[in-house]
Amino acid sequence: MQFLDIVQLLDTSIRLGTPLLFACLAGLFSERSGVVDIGLEGKMLIAAFFSAAFAYYSGNAWVGLLAGIAASVLLAVIHGLASITFRGNQLISGVAINFLAAGMTVLIAQSWFKQGGRTPPLTGNGRFGNVELPFAIGPSDAEAAGRPLSQMIAEAGPVQQFYSELISGHSILVYLGLITVAATWWILFRTRFGLRLRAVGENPAAVDTAGVSVIQLRYAAVLICGVLCGLAGAYMATSLQAGFVKDMTAGRGFIALAALIFAKWRPVYAMWACMLFGFFQALETRPDLIEAVIGMKVQIQLLGALPYILTVVILAGFIGKAIPPKASAEPYIKER
Amino acid sequence: MDKMPKWADIVLIPVISLLLAAFFSALVILAIGENPLEALKLMVDGALMRSSGWGYTLYYATNFMFTGLAVAVAFHARLFNIGGEGQAMIAGLGVALVCLYIPWPHWSLAILGASVGAACFGALWALIPAYLQARRGSHIVITTIMFNFIAAALLNYVLVELLRPVGAMDPASAKFPAGTHLPSFQDMFSTETTKMFRGAPANVSFFLALAACVFVWLLIWRTRLGYEIRAFGQSESAAKYAGISPVRITVIAMLISGALAGMMAVNTTMGESERLILNATEGAGFIGIAVALMGRNHPFGVFLAAILFGFLYQGGAELALWTNIPRELIVVIQALVILFTGALDNMVREPIEKLFIAMRRRNA
Fold it and tell me: Per the record's keyword annotation, is Acetylation included, yes or no (chain B) (predicted)?
């Protein structure tokens, strides 16, 4: 295994970790406010579909992104109505949202595009292009030199490989994801809104007594959750892949939830957890590398199940205890 | 505040929730440019107007009865078992092992053996989440979801690497021997002159599902254990005070739940495909949630709801065959049922409660 192999593996990890990261931060806002959300998967899925559909119609990935966010926010409002206004069971509401998205996306996709529940492939500006940072070797350099990009990177020095392959050349949404981590940390731990948000997830009655609306805070958190899930889904359909296919989120919403537990509901840890799970998914695509490193064949199914197994181990408290916000999953009933 | 009468709670509210779900489903069908009334007619024709349609409806209903009961039993202990899918998948493995490696002389014995295999494997798959919830406080919803994914990976591994016959391409076990073949409704109800349930997969495990409904009713309302489960579900602290061990009840309730979810594998794996295949569960584990919610966690309600969902499943397949409406329509209907009968329950309940109170005041 060469240095470039490692760099490429980490590069894939970042690509695959980014949708997890958005969804994980989405869950973080929601659960910090005391609203458990197992509907991340559904919101990502519906955002993936609507972003792909509108990017296709408009030929503009940004239009797609907005449509994806709008669809995801709509589901977030339903979750908010069920779990905040009508004090229903948040878990059941999340399950319903996942099914709603799984069914609606295929139904609408079939009705609009008649291609068996997928959108036509996106091309050109319908996808988010890759950002080329200064001094990196990118497609334009390759074109100028008239040689394949992979060959040019393979010949470059390790620092240039690391910079061009791993740091540069990602979709703008990947960089936005990293900024969102910092923003989430800042909002949660350095602003008044964040302080109140964390408080409402731990002790809503105290927040209420202080004259701050529990309902408004929770709705705000659920809406932020919707926006971030929208970004996650749009990234999948318009950046990672070129279009929507049925069930394309494939359990990523649940892996994001797992990462959230892994990270113990903290933003920077969430980033590392998502990148770790992204790394597992990247490994699945390169079983040859694992075999070369540890000298034996590892079952691909085991690799796929690893994030889930790890989550159960974490949940069981064998590697440090993960304690969720105290009031999570409990509807707040104002005393009269 | 006065309560409303019991019949309103167990009949009126579910029916209104169901009508709301049906109304929104009709809107969805309209939105994709089809006629809801025509769609309903197609569904009724395909699922109920022929005996073979009934055969499919009852086949699906058998699955949903098992998974619905599984969710319902766990709900009584206020545990949300979302892992029926994984439990049924692993139970399929139990059924396959029993059918493939034990030479059964007759199906009547084989179905007992397969039921034990399915129940044991299903219960085993529910045991770890149950134990972790009871002893270490890990949330059962998250662990059972994770166990669904782990089950899928495990089954994939077992089918691809271990159970697949030499030379076969698709990930599936060998065919089960003839001694384990369950009589289908076609075998049971056809006469010399008229063939009934032609080609439909409904089989004798339907009666197993009916027995399971009776068993759950007896268990929950007629045994000490059932009383303990309900008491624990109503109030954990009161149950503890009464000397009921939360650990014991959590584990037992989940074991029963997992065993019931697992039993559906008898129907799918032994009764229908007669070999273990990937994705035999077809989402029935999740539909169990809708079935239990609609059936108000009562076995009779679960029975009715399972038939309704069996009808929807078969009707949905007919729709996909004759119109442009894909099968996923029933996923949407399922989502709406879960949303209105489960999550938005208070939205329907509160106005009706107020109505009853207002009526009572006027009468008084």
Answer: no
